[in-house]
Specification:
Layout: H1 3-55, H2 64-78, E1 81-85, E2 91-94, H3 99-104, H4 112-120, E3 122-128, E4 135-142, E5 151-157, H5 158-209, H6 224-259, E6 263-268, E7 273-276, H7 278-283, H8 295-298, H9 302-314, E8 321-325, E9 330-340, E10 346-355, H10 357-392, H11 399-430, E11 438-442, H12 443-457, E12 464-468, E13 474-478, H13 479-495, E14 502-512, E15 515-524, H14 546-549, H15 558-568, E16 572-578, E17 582-590
Parallel strand pairs: 12-14
Antiparallel strand pairs: 1-2, 1-5, 3-4, 4-5, 6-7, 6-10, 8-9, 9-10, 11-13, 14-15, 15-17, 16-17
Helix pairs in contact: 1-5, 5-6, 10-11, 11-15, 12-13, 13-15
Amino acid sequence: MKIRHKLLMAFIITALVTSVLVTGGAGRLLGTVVEERYVERIQAESLLMRAWLEEKTGSAELSTGSLQDFAITAGARLGYRVTLIRDDGLVMADSAQDLPGLIAMDNHAARPEIAMAMREGNGESRRTSATTRTEYYYRALRVDGTDPVRIIRVALPTNQVRRIQSRYVSLMAVTTAVVLLAICALGYLFVSRLSKPMEEITRAAELTAGGDLNSPLPPVGDDEAGRLAAAVGDMRAGLLHKIEEIASEHRLMLSMMSGIREGLLLVGTDHRILMANQPLREIFEVGGNPEGDLLAEVVRNPSVIRHVEATLEHGTAAEDEIIRFPATGRAFEIRTAPVLDENGQTRAALALLFDITRLETLEGVRREFVSNVSHELRTPLTSIQAFVETLLEGGMDDRENRTRFLKIIRRHTTFMGELIGELSDLNKIETGAVDLDPVDLDLMEVAAAVTGKLAQAYGGQQIELSTEIPPEFRLKADRRRLEQILTNLVDNALKFNKAGGTVRIEAYRTREGGNPRTEIVVADDGVGIPSDCIERVFNRFYRVDQARSKDVSGTGLGLSIVKHLMRLHGGRVELASELGVGTRVTLIFPDRL
């Protein structure tokens, strides 16, 4: 119920109760006054009639017939019942009776008012008449010195008094009702004027509670409502400031969370998810927003659930653990910590999943690298050690074997030197320690230098080495590194070829996405590479056929060096091969470096 209605109801009830009390009291007072006025009138009329009787004492006008006419005339004029009684109580005249009725009337000497008037001169009573069966108010007055009348009695019907009283009371009630309605109308206007500011302030407070902090407050004065409106305005300003601060902090937190690449999970004590960032949803392949869902329904990993539950139960961080997902090949390190309230009680558990897939991959590469380097060095070192021991134990005297052993030792030491050199070179390239010196080159000149050098090394293998490069085909690149790239590719094409095979160096101008580019192709019709090995041939020390590679010299680092040098030039390398058909390696350079 509105405050306006409450105030108006209280006002109306107060006015109504007051009106009823006032009307009731005034009605009773008015009834008493009316009755007293009638009594005074009866008394005055009785005195007048006594004076008339005293004046007519001894005359013929005081006969029974004359007295009856007098009583009837007086009663009709006054509207009362007039009775004249002798001193023995016999009724001589009565305005309510005719002459035959007078004879039948009882003796009135015993009537209370008559008896009192006989004794004291005045008598009164209120009772029902035994003659007319009507309630009267009787007033009796003793008349001295008149004969035959001794008592003048005037009777006023009480219903007549009540009618007058009712008439006055009704008039008062109507007046009171009109006044009450006027008071209620004025009260409504007053209450409306008083409550309207409060209602508007209440409406503004409700809008504030609903989140609307910008709706205007009603203009009010400097009374209590005005102070309340000012307080509400200050409260809204404070809330708006706090909300802006919270929103700013929330935006900052969301920005920080969006920048966190680790999976972040916040779980409440009821085991329901409070927050999960996008990386975590991707880890567990969650489509929608999991906030509010049970942990076990979203994170289907026993290790993660165990860590979170342990943190919630004990309020301490659980030990770090590495979790692997075989289906995706990814690995994560999970760390958990409790979120405490101001009383030190655990409110939630925070879990972070660090993606260590790359670290584990790098660790695997490191182990493989160490293993490969150890293997590549162990084999020539073992051979060198064996031949040196053979020479020391008497082989020096065998000239033919001594020369052969020393050539083998020289070949192995040369291989080890090349391996160490290429490892050092690859490390510099990968760490960015190599600076390119790009210049405008004639590609035919560079290709001729490479083919001339390798033609001498592989001259006895009956492999055709050719170039198909347009005249004046120029390219901007680092000459030394370009020669290194082509040497590694052509060397591999010659190594893994067959007698009568061919190796070609080709060059083209093409476009990619509207941008010009240069393509250099090294193609052969050698043994080829299985399709499942193509992606791995650029890894360090990787060899397609270990058994076949034992008879082919090389460090296994050539293609890895080619890949990284092409990246330094801003280009890339592509390889296509078919087992038994041949291999085609394409070097793609941008138009400018």
